[in-house]
Amino acid sequence: MKVLINRSDAIGDNILTMPMAEALKLKFPDAEIAILTSFICRDIYKDHPFIDKVYFLNKKESYPRKLRKCFQIFDDFKPSHYFYAGGSQTPNFVAWFNRVNFRGGIKSRIGSFITLNKGVRQRRSQVSGHEIEYNNELLAELTEFEKKDLQVLAPKINLTRKQEYIKKFKELLSSKNLDPNREYIVIHPGMTGHTLNWPSGNYAELIKRLSLKYNDKYNYIVSFTPSDNLYLTQIREAVSQDEQLKKCTLFFDGSVEGLESYMNILSHAKAFLGPSTGTTHLAAVLNVPLVGIYSPIKAQSSIRWAPIGKNTIDVVNPDVVCGEEVKCAKQACPYFPCMDKIEVEDIFNKLITILEK
């Protein structure tokens, strides 16, 4: 049995798809399982305990090149079973063209109804369960699976800890006049997609309050990628105007050294704070105590997207009754902007609880 799982989209989505591979291995120990992921996610699968091969697509490539690469992947792996869990639908067509006997996954766009012969129609926006549950339900089309086999399993990353990344990180701290020997808290204020986020000014105020309480104890690592710059403006302004914050705050572009480096640095953090984004899921899987800030909109809520890990995970939602399923109603909603209702004091206290455990 050779199973190819296509999850060629974002980091968080990939992390919550990992348990599919474990569920398959538990049922079929001799199965060979491959993942078809996106270029940015390839490092999270290094030496994965339940995934034998990793292939990836680069969304920046032209469609003809992407199609050619998909054919190469199928020719190399020769799957007997194919699952579409999200991302590019080009592999769906290749699986159909190659007459892969079992073609399962999510039936969503019109093409998937044609290409997937064992697909499942799911209404994930109705949020009746967690994303891991939705992904594992795709396996139910395998006749050998029973309901007890579709339990919620925790995602896993087999991180190879490399001191070279920590050494280089400490050198960066020193070059920015920060004490490299302090413990640090990672704060990731940015996100991609349309999920609601906590105001940037609140992240800035939180860092100020933590630095006043703990004085010279912690560094505050504001991690980002270039697409997150919109969320950094107010934090940069606050730091530039405060001499104390300059000595303990580092703006860290995780894309410079790559995801493996970032994961090594993140894994040593004392605590993590972030919204509903892939980095929050990384922190959870790497067992970093965290506070996650989530939107109340049904399809974006923590019911479906909560991070899963073994350490402290505290998920915060605004205390409102949201009637929206997919998109924010904005000014038409009496609670807008609802994310402002999450007080800095609340997040501050939750982080203190983690730091003083």
Structural overview:
The chain is α/β, with parallel strands linked by helices and 357 residues long. The chain folds into two domains: 2-150, Glycogen Phosphorylase B (Rossmann fold), CATH 3.40.50; 163-355, Rossmann fold (3-Layer(aba) Sandwich), CATH 3.40.50. 35% of the residues lie in helices and 17% in strands. It has helices spanning 11-15, 18-27, 63-77, 90-97, 110-115, 131-137, 163-175, 200-214, 233-240, 243-246, 259-267, 278-285, 302-305, 344-355; strands at residues 2-7, 32-38, 53-57, 81-86, 102-106, 118-120, 183-187, 218-224, 249-253, 271-275, 290-293, 313-316. The strands form two sheets. Strands 3-2-1-4-5-6 form a six-stranded parallel beta sheet, with helices on both faces. A six-stranded parallel beta sheet has the order 9-8-7-10-11-12, sandwiched between helices. Helix 7 (163-175) crosses helix 11, helix 8 (200-214) runs parallel beside helix 9 (233-240) and helix 8 (200-214) packs across helix 14. The longest helix is centred in the N-terminal third of the chain and has 15 residues, at 63-77. It starts with a strand and ends with a helix. The model has no long low-confidence stretch (mean pLDDT 93).
Order of helices and strands: EHHEEHEHEHEHHEHEHHEHEHEHEH
Physical arrangement of strands within the biggest beta sheet: 3-2-1-4-5-6
Strand content range: 15-25%
Mean pLDDT: 93
What is the share of helical residues?
Answer: 25-40%
Q: Give me the number of helical elements.
A: 14
CATH class of the largest domain: Alpha Beta
Radius of gyration: 21 Å
Quaternary organisation of the protein chains: single chain
Q: Which secondary-structure class do the elements indicate?
A: alpha/beta
Regions with little confidence, pLDDT below 50 for 5+ residues: none
Q: For the terminal residues, how far apart are their CA atoms?
A: 47 Å
Reported by name, the CATH topology of the largest domain is Rossmann fold
What is the domain total for the residues?
2
Number of strands: 12
CATH architecture verdict of the largest domain: 3-Layer(aba) Sandwich
How would a crystallographer describe the biggest sheet? 6 strands, parallel
Shape: globular
